[in-house]
Amino acid sequence: AVVSTQSTGDNIQLEKNTGQAEDDTKTSQLEVLKEFLEYREMTIQLAALMIMGVIVAFIYYGFAFGWGKLGSDLYLSYFYAGLGDLLTIILQPVPHMYLGRRKSMIVYFLVAGCTFLVALIPLDFGFITLEQLSCLVGSMFSSAAFFSLFLYTSELAPDAQRGKMLGFLSIACRVGALLGPQANLMFEWSKQGTLVIFAVLAVLASLVPIRLPESRDAKTPATAAEVQERRLERKRNLRLSALEDELS
Q: What is the pLDDT of residues 7-19, one digit of tens each?
């Protein structure tokens, strides 16, 4: 009877602890939501990063499932794609060191968009067509943007919200990954039309980082309030620079 009473007491205590943990989790989630609503700058940055996530994942997985439509030899096409991804991983840190995160993202998307348009030119080099070569270069820069996006997000996000922002970005990329394989059907409809759509999306994505701050050599923000304050400070500096230019 003593053992049974003690077991019952332990179960009651366990239920209380579980209920307390659930209440704490709900409270924490509500606080996170309040911060996103209160600090507009952090919400804008997250929305911009998610837009880039959807676009770059759509292009990345569109090519991952569509290489067979861009050449006569399926295996050779995927060999080129794998080689391109390997080169991307090796060379990706170089633009980050010299251009920073923000400018690198702009360059990645712009170059990808331009190469997708170049791919519309009918030219055959024998071992590879201009279409395959241009799409390979474009997919390399799209892959670089895809890999860099998570690094950029982790540096922009405040310490308290980094996990949440990376989670939202992952959701956006999942949406793009779900849409990407449908590009395989788009290639069957029209390769030229699909490449134009990729080019337009990539160029539009290159405009998004213009609104975002540079994170290279910058201290990671600790709170959402600090993100907001940095935005205000950046605007003040721009106004001061414009005023100095007018006076000079």
A: 555 555 555 555 5
